[in-house]
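Board notes (copied after class):
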Amino acid sequence: MARPRERWKIETTRNRVTGYIPNEDRPSSRPVLASMSELEGMREQEVAIFLAERYAKALALHQRREVPRNKSTFRGATLTYLEEKLWEGSTEPYSQSFNKFLEATGDFKLSDWSNVLNKQFIDMCRNQGLADSTIHKHQRHIQGAFIWLSKHQPEILPRNIEIEKVQVRFKKKQPHGEPTVWSKEEKTLYHAQIVSCGNVNHFRAYMLARYQIMRLSEFWSLPLERIDLDGGWIYIDNVQDFPHNGAYVKVKRKQARKIEIHPTAYDYMVKDLAARAPEEKWWLDNGKGKPAFLLRNSISCAFGKFRDAAGLSGDPLHCFRRSGITEMLDAEMMPVKVMALAGHHSMETTMGSYVNRNALEGSKTVAAII
């Protein structure tokens, strides 16, 4: 059997990256995914994600052009869903889910649906090493398409198809199921790794994650105009989604808010902002008014490496957030105030998922986050 071809390859003589899309009855398609200049300055993981997104777009375009549209089939129906539904964000995650399902089952008539197809999809994903949470995400995307088609295109799907989704079992963070938090000593170890790396934008991200308990999506493309040093506030709202021109990473209900700046973060911000170039406009800026990180995942990846180097465990960004929330409650701050600062919709979320009860010692200290 022939060896599977790679999805893309680098053509050094032409200074570009081309994709590979096979065709059954004619030569394969080779769309240009990117020029080498577009990839300059990106880390290996950033390049892989960037090219995967470009390949998904090229594949979707190829399928629209080359595959005869039969709306009664899964392929035709999902293409109709992608093209005719009113979208606010990117359709790429949905397109990837549909293509993944087709990879497992091939195209089929919606009237021939059975749970056997769903099982084939689950088995293939597990054989590829995908987590159940990822499989569940793909199934949610497909279920959403079926619901929309049955409601808005009943001539394609007269009755909704219910998908039996995999059960996602969450691992306990600690022996007693308490969320992972880091002690002052553990955060000191992490701090040392951040300092030693010498990347100013990694340190800027660290300051907002540790002292402001902000989510990655909230500070990743935070504009400098949202930082009010005179008033001592940071305003949190929708931020720009850099890979998707004109799109935004939208905050959920109760997440849009303003939070007071922690004294340690304030002292750092005063010095940092004073040293900025006039053209800079983002908290994580490359020094020329452009984003330092095109993709959020590159920050998560770097922070994971610092954690490993420090000999710690847990998701660093979530650990800083949980640790800060736990410390504020330990300092006897009102729970409703902590909930508001965290941008949670309910007290149940704050107390049930972000507080380590074993770390609450009833301290009488006035300082909130250490």
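Comment from the instructor: The first helix runs from residue 36 to 39. Confidence is low (pLDDT under 50) at residues 171-175.
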